[in-house]
Amino acid sequence: MLPDRFSEWARPFFAISPFYSGAQPALDELQTYRPNNGTVDVPWLLDHPDTSVVDVRSPGEYAQGHIPGAVSAPLFSDDERAIVGTLYKQQGRAVAIERGLEFATEKADALAEAIADAAGESPFVIHCWRGGMRSRGVARLCDQRNLKPQLLNGGYKSFRQAALKSFEQHRNIILLAGKTGTGKTILLQKLSDAGEQMIDLEGLAVHRGSVFGAIPGRDQPTTEQFENLLFPQWHQLDPLQPVWIEGENQAIGRVHVPQHLFEQMVTAPIALVEADRGSRIEFLLKDYEVVSDENLIDAVQRLKKRLGGLRLQQAIDAIHDGNRQEFANLTLDYYDKSYGKALQHRHPDEIHTVSMKRPADPQAVAPLIELAKSLKTTTTGR
Fold it and tell me: What are the residue ranges spanned by the domains of the chain?
């Protein structure tokens, strides 16, 4: 594979690139090249979410993590990067540059057309890993085609740095907590509909948080991409107003909540919603009716050490017998006990209980909002 700082050794490649007509630009000119529409930085990009973004890194780089909404228009495919990188290591820079030139020459027209189709006639932002030769070379190509490219200062690297730094910023978090089956995710949306700030971590993670939380037909993002999706939402929050976040472990399926954000979550006040066990079981049965028996068995087997062999077998037998209510009842014993232990680590004064007639009860929204107001007043008065 190519070195992370590909642009450092590839400068001669871009200096003689056939992307450019007529006399080849000097290397120092390319290094300082600014498109006709100029450059933008990360804060500007966040404040203009409708701006089209074109990512010219390889598909593999893009898959690992990208700016939300960015279109992938790679200068090199993953195989091409691997080929050029291998040539660089084994036969030297000159041979690698020559092969890279062949790849770029073959696709210059197609690349420009793809970018034009994706970006349209409005100004759009191009970036590579750190705003180096890849993005500058492609921006110059676009300028020559009368497109309207802008460069992202610092590239994707600057976006990642800003994202990770942002999670250190304090927000007035209120954790929406409750036992399994209380409909917390639906309540979050109802709070948002009522004008409250909220972040749905499970929605961004494409996972509902438990071993049964995988969403059929949808893959989770990488942790890097989860952070990228979270960043614009975190950035736009009013720091003076409360923000509702569902109480989570740091791991949500295979992704992890950023450390600085999680540290704020574990010290935030808790709004604990409660509903009776029977209504929670009914809610869960409806919520998980699309999950196959095979997937349920697969998930519950990951709880073997915690459930014990006998209870695990009882849960599996219940699924085989088509008795999902008994299955839910058995697994709720574990989850309710686990939830109770987690709350024992918090001071009782930090926990504020809101009772509901049923899971996701819309009548709970008003008292939750009143609770947020009282917590804000208490915090301000300290």
Answer: 6-163, 167-381
